[in-house]
Write a structure and sequence with these properties.
By secondary structure, the protein is mainly α. It has 9 helices and no strands. Helix 4 packs antiparallel against helix 5, helix 4 packs parallel to helix 7 and helix 5 runs antiparallel to helix 7. It is elongated.
């Protein structure tokens, strides 16, 4: 899958492949560090993990808020882009369940960015909630609609409700708990489904 514009510098200009690789490494490292240590983690920890110098980071992201925004948008894009890929590879119900697990991974990263998103500089991040909805609501809607059409889940599921439920249920420090509640949520989606093609069984397949 090609890199998305979120991995370009704030100016949005196209960059050389080697620079793109550095950006990718920086954003990947920053996402991991933010998820475990929070957005105030030392820059050195990010650059060391990425294998680049501090100058490279500051050249593309002069302010920490620039890096946080880029990480957040990149994680949203990756999660949204996973939906059509899963829909092509798996049956509708299994694709939806797998995407919910992928969304849970995104939420772990989002929790690492939570302090920044609720900081005293709301204008810096005010576009991110809109970007979240614009990218992720259509992604899950397509999966839910396909699963409902297949008869594998109930027909009255509101896609945005699933996003909200997942946001409340995911426990970043307890992946086993998260897995259990996703399984319970999946069972709830199947309850009352038509089951026209037996797609509901996909939830128990790994």
């Amino acid at each position: 899958m090609p890199d998305r514009p979120a991995e370009e510098p704030p100016t949005g200009r196209r960059v050389r492949p080697d620079v793109q690789r550095s950006l990718h490494a920086l954003l990947t490292a920053a996402a991991e560090v933010f998820a475990t240590d929070g957005v105030d983690a030392p820059v050195r920890r990010i650059t060391t993990k990425a294998g680049v110098g501090a100058g490279t980071l500051y050249r593309h992201f002069p302010q920490r808020s620039d890096l946080i925004t880029a990480v957040f948008r990149r994680e949203i894009d990756a999660c949204a882009d996973a939906a059509p890929a899963l829909a092509e590879e798996y049956q509708p119900v299994e694709a939806l369940e797998r995407w919910l697990r992928r969304f849970a991974q995104f939420l772990v990263t989002k929790r690492g960015l939570k302090a920044a998103l609720h900081s005293s500089e709301p204008a810096t991040y005010e576009s991110l909630p809109v970007y979240f909805q614009d990218r992720l609501v259509p992604a899950i809607t397509n999966l839910v609609d396909a699963a409902a059409k297949s008869g594998g889940i109930r027909s009255d599921v509101v896609p945005y409700d699933l996003l909200r439920a997942m946001s409340d249920l995911v426990a970043p420090d307890d992946p086993d708990y998260t897995e259990r509640v996703i399984t319970l949520l999946a069972d709830g989606l199947r309850y009352g489904a038509d089951g026209a093609d037996g797609a509901g069984a996909d939830f128990n397949e790994r």
